[in-house]
Amino acid sequence: MNEYTNSLDFACRLDNADELHHFRGRFHFPCFQDNTIFYFCGNSLGLMPKTVQYALLHELEDWHKYGVEGHFMARNPWFSYHTLLREPLAMLTGGLPSEVVCMNTLTVNLHLMMVSFYRPTQERFKIIIEAGAFPSDYYTVETQIAFHGYNPETALIEIAPREGETTLRTEDIVRTIEEHGSSVALVLFSGVQYQTGQRFDMKAITEAAHSIGAKAGFDLAHAIGNVELALHDWDVDFAAWCSYKYLNSGPGGIGGVFVHERHGSSPDVPRFGGWWGYEESTRFQMKKGFKPSQGANGWQLSNAQVFQMAALKASLDIFQEAGFDTLCAKRDQLTAFLEFHINDMLDNNPAIPLTVLTPKEKEQRGAQLSLAFSERGKELHKKLTDIGIIGDWREPNIIRIAPAPLYNSFTDIYHFRTALETLCAEMWPH
N- to C-terminal Cα distance for the chain? Predict the structure, then answer.
């Protein structure tokens, strides 16, 4: 729909036409205050699927009933529990089922991936990242560089937007990679930038990295379950993610990795070994000498985190039922509807010191608009929270609003705009 209208009736008509609208009823919405809560924070912590409680009770009952034999006798045997998540994760990442596995948490996985794919030499030791990357990415990269005996001040290359711009141009990323050339060991970018909501061209970044002989990896914390991915076809070397944002697995939910099959099929790729990554057919022979499993499974260290995987599976089942292409189409419409309301509000009151950082092109964003306020932004965020509008605040001046297509509605966005406009009129009268 090309034209939107600022009315509750119009938003309701969009909801009535939404084939995914009934999925909203599959999730618990917060109820910690008297006001109705409108939740736009799925990019920080997704809502709880109602089936999670049953999924966890299911595993607790099997633990009660079978004890250790639950590894093989549970309704979802724990020994192979990670395999239940292969197909949905392959769908969401655009990887082969053998290229993905759930394990650990995001930053742990980034370190484990860098053990394999950051192999600096005296000539090739630099890592390229985007300026303003999430702090964990910085800390991972800085400490890995230092661990290998190099200086982050010379080995870490950050790419910043041009002066006066807030997002990166793909040509600038590619040019920087090419300029540093054979000194680059790894290009590590986020799939979707957490502050601005910019979706990076992962295919172009990967091609540029490979053209100079470097590896290409991605932090998909804000991308998986949010934007379309084709990691296998893009020839990405590795990726890592968390699952508690758009994947709705709960606080501290399990992470995961993608390892391209050309690496996963090679037992000579260096890595840290663990029992659960050992060749499955001979794992219980308890022999010395690490023999990795084929594919991404060969990077596992420890037993399946069954309770966390059960929570994630409950959400992934909903993704599969809804269909990711359908979710992405609604994502684009929801985000465009939100953008319309922001722009319409600014047209009505130009005194509001608000700039939308997120790109306008749908190919360059997902389910998020980042709203930068040149003054009093944190005060506004608190006022919104106090009346039940849940977004999140990021320093120095950003309120992030993320309408998730599985559970947000067009009327949610209408009510957000109404509340935001009222508060802004009080704070910046015109």
Answer: 31
Report the half-sphere exposure of 225 (CA within 13 A, side-chain side): 32
β-strands 184-190, 126-130 pairing: parallel
Its pTM surpasses 0.90:
yes
Strands (E), 169-318: 184-190, 215-219, 238-241, 256-259
Model confidence pLDDT, tens digit, residues 154-199: 999 999 999 999 999 999 999 999 999 999 999 999 999 999 999 9
d(Cα 230, Cα 100) in Å, to the nearest integer? 13
Counting runs of H as helices and runs of E as strands, what totals does the chain give? 14, 15
- Max CA separation in the chain (angstroms): 76
Domains of the chain: 8-32+325-427 (3.90.1150.10), 55-320 (3.40.640.10)
User: Which segments within 160-197 are labelled E, that is strand?
Assistant: 184-190
pLDDT digits (tens, 9 = 90+) for 242-286: 999 999 999 999 999 999 999 999 999 999 999 999 998 998 899
